[in-house]
Design goal:
alpha/beta; 6-stranded mixed sheet
Length: 455
């Protein structure tokens, strides 16, 4: 018997699962997301194709588990505009990987201190606020439509909820709104000051409601119990509320998160965002590695094993494919290889890229240690199953690494919230034996190489 359903609106794959009464997930289906396309800094996807894929997954899930509460977890910062009357998209899905407003950010650097104070984010072209600001400058008719309310703005879960309710519900939650760079963390509302700076009318923005939705009826017989950002869902499911552990979630991007109730303690150049509203509210403090999957896909498939010694001592990689993320925030860079790495055979080059992912994670973990000592690291996501990665992370970080038995932390968190359970699932996992003693020294050399590259 199912307790709830969960849908993950991913960048690469959409997934659906049910949660049973023992707290275990059971896959109900998955489908590839429409591919992201675009030249230069542009990264977009087919809006109608994305909605059709999501609705088809839910149609099958609702047939198997009718009447269930549904939790939706969504990739963050990807958004679109659509017509309020018809629901027709007027833009593609603008992906979180898109960096086309880079020039807008460069000309509005004076906004950064205010934006960091109000949102816990840095001024980056990855977020919906700068993206939408640049779009409205180029398309004044869109600004008029938002001001009049004839056009709607929404992240992917907002658009899907709109469709599932026949246009009755236009909502988001704080974990998603907080990633747009338009919501004030203290008040929990769209910031009038930031909307003014971005030139964005509030009329077309969704209402910000609780992550736990109650029971919003959907046309397919399900009812919406929760909507939440993907990384917040995963962190809440696998991390104890005391903030003593970190989650490393390696999928299309790399995300390293800790939980806290005191967002003022976040280290500089790391991201702070709402995870769960409540008293007190829970926040994530996060470092990101932007879009690691595209690079690894180019370099072929694994598995990549751990060599006894380093076959390429001078081979280094900065693996962020969509601009270097926290704590550097260089939207103009990535991915980068050292000259020695470029001469390697494909299998060796892939291992160097995986080393780069691991070293970026270790760098972020060191930054998050400003919140206090870490007791252990919990590892999830598709790339966590690559044999090289868990052992390398344990060796390079010097921390206990627990490889979670349940790889779908995002679905687990969304399903538990929809079912009305406490989000922390205390999932089982296996402590990894570190391997590759040479990685700790190579990390120090990688740090010097990447620091010179980013200087």
């Amino acid at each position: 018997m199912a307790l709830s359903l969960a849908l993950d609106l991913g960048s690469t794959t959409l997934k659906c699962a049910r949660l049973d009464r023992e707290g275990h997930l059971h896959a109900l289906g998955s489908t590839p997301a429409p591919p992201v396309f675009g030249q230069g800094l542009i990264r977009e996807a087919d809006a109608d194709g994305y909605a059709e894929a999501a609705l088809d997954l839910l149609r099958r899930a609702a047939a198997e588990c009718p009447g269930m509460p549904l939790g939706i977890a969504s990739q963050r910062s990807s958004f679109l505009l659509w017509e309020r009357q018809t629901g027709d998209a007027v833009t593609p899905v603008i992906s979180w990987q898109d960096r086309s407003p880079e020039a807008w950010c460069h000309t509005h650097t004076g906004l950064e201190p205010e934006l960091e104070r109000r949102t816990g984010l840095v001024l980056s072209p990855h977020y919906a606020g700068p993206k939408l600001a640049a779009i409205l400058e180029q398309n004044p008719a869109f600004r008029d439509g938002l001001a009049k309310g004839t056009l709607c703005f929404g992240t992917l879960e907002t658009w899907l909820i709109w469709k599932l309710t026949g246009g009755r519900v236009h909502r988001t939650d704080p974990s998603m709104a907080g990633r747009t760079a338009m919501m004030d963390l203290d008040s929990g509302i769209w910031s009038p000051e930031l909307l003014s700076a971005f030139g964005i009318p509030e009329g077309g923005l969704p209402a910000i409601g609780s992550t736990r939705c109650g029971a919003i009826p959907l046309y397919n017989g399900l009812h919406l119990g929760a909507s939440i950002s993907d990384q917040a869902a995963g962190a809440l499911a696998v991390l104890p509320p005391d903030g003593s552990e970190a989650l490393v979630n390696l999928g299309t991007g790399g995300f390293v998160l800790r939980l806290t109730h005191d967002r003022s303690a976040s280290p500089a150049r790391f991201l702070t965002g709402p995870a769960l509203d409540g008293q007190p509210p829970t926040f994530t403090v996060e470092g990101t590695i932007n879009a690691i999957a595209p690079l690894l896909e180019e370099l072929g498939r694994g598995p990549t094993l751990m060599p006894a010694t380093d076959p390429a001592p001078g081979g280094f990689c900065l693996p962020d494919s969509a601009g270097v993320g926290a704590p550097h925030w260089r939207a103009d860079m990535g991915p980068e290889f050292s000259p020695q790495a470029r001469r390697l055979m494909p299998a060796d080059l892939r291992r160097v890229a995986l080393e780069g992912v691991v070293f970026r994670v270790v760098e972020i973990l060191h930054g998050l240690a400003a919140l206090g000592p870490l007791r252990c690291v919990r590892l999830a996501g598709g790339l966590a199953r690559e044999p090289f990665v868990p052992k390398a992370l344990a060796a390079a970080s010097g921390l206990p690494v627990v490889l979670l038995d349940e790889p779908e932390a995002t679905l687990l968190g969304a399903a538990r919230l929809a079912a009305g359970l406490l989000p922390f699932a205390a999932p089982a996992g296996q402590t990894v034996d570190p391997d590759g003693a040479w990685l700790a020294d190579k990390y120090r050399r990688w740090k010097a190489w990447s620091g010179a590259l980013l200087a």
